[in-house]
């Protein structure tokens, strides 16, 4: 069974509720995954908006998620706990910052990317930009998946 990612908060390609948007409650959605490949020691998760006016915009990066974990509860992105660390997003914060497209810019797609890794510790410092965390993770990926939600202001 392949690695899959989903959320009880919204359907694949469905609208992300305002509670998960930056101008709402700014809570990261509950995320669940299954089909974890053998040999997985950790996960990395990022959230990207390819529809941003100036190109790809990264809203969240979480890494060193333990390999035995299969979900992140709603609001987890506000503060890392345990061994999980957060990358610096394009807002300059080391946390989840939800959708906030410019008003009147149309529907934006938010890609939640999850990768299973063959290392427990990605070996990057705290406050590393999300893009650099994903680049470091590529060398250790066993499998990756994505889940897309939409948002419009």
Automatic annotation (TrEMBL):
This is PEBP family protein. It holds the Pfam family PBP. InterPro entries: PEBP, PEBP-like_sf, YbhB_YbcL/LppC-like. It comes from Devosia nitrariae. PANTHER family: PEBP (PHOSPHATIDYLETHANOLAMINE-BINDING PROTEIN) FAMILY PROTEIN, UNCHARACTERIZED PROTEIN YBCL-RELATED.
